[in-house]
Amino acid sequence: GEDVEQSLFLSVREGDSSVINCTYTDSSSTYLYWYKQEPGAGLQLLTYIFSNMDMKQDQRLTVLLNKKDKHLSLRIADTQTGDSAIYFCAESKASGTYKYIFGTGTRLKVLA
Amino acid sequence: DAGVTQSPTHLIKTRGQHVTLRCSPISGHKSVSWYQQVLGQGPQFIFQYYEKEERGRGNFPDRFSARQFPNYSSELNVNALLLGDSALYLCASRPGQENQPQHFGDGTRLSIL
Asked: Which residues of B touch A48 (CB under 8 A)?
C-alpha cells in the first residue's frame, strides 16, 4: 500500500536539536525526501537519501534511514526560529512516473 | 536562474466554472508534475508529463486534465469546479524521466465559492 505517516506537531527551543520522524510502507521506494513548506509558499527541497544509504549529512541536517523498520528521520541541529515551518517527507516510486507519496506533514514550532 | 513559476498565484472561482492553471518548469527540465494540496494535508499526485506525453495520472476524476507544450510548460485544467477543489495546486519539474528530485513552484491557491 501507499502510506506515509508523520507526527503532526513538534515544538523545540531555539538552539536545541529537532528530530522529525516519518514511516513509510512501500519497500520498493528508491528515494526518500524531506521538503520544507513555509506559510503561503510552495515546497522547498531540503535533502534526500537513496534507499541503499543509512545516513546523509548536509550542514545542519542529518537524515537517518532504517530500511528494516521503514523509518526515516530528519535531525536539524541548532534549530533557529527561521526553521519554523511544516516539514514533509516523501517517497518516490521505484519505476514509472516516480510520483511522490507525501506524508501529512509535521509542523515545527521553534520557541525563542 | 528562475525556479518553477506558476500563474496565477491566487484565483477565486464559483462552483461549476472551469479553471486553467499554468506552470513553467526550470530551464532545461522536460518533466512536469502536478499535485493538489488540500489545507492541512500533504500534496497528492495528479499528473506527470514528459516530452508532451502523459506518463502518469493519480486518482482524480476526468474533470481534471492537463497538457504539456513544446517549450515544456504545462497547463492544468479543471472543469465543473466543486467546493472540494479548493486547494493549493503545485507544479514540480525535474530534468527528465529518471528518478531525480523534483523542484516545486510556489503554487496557485484556488478558492471555490
From this structure: 101
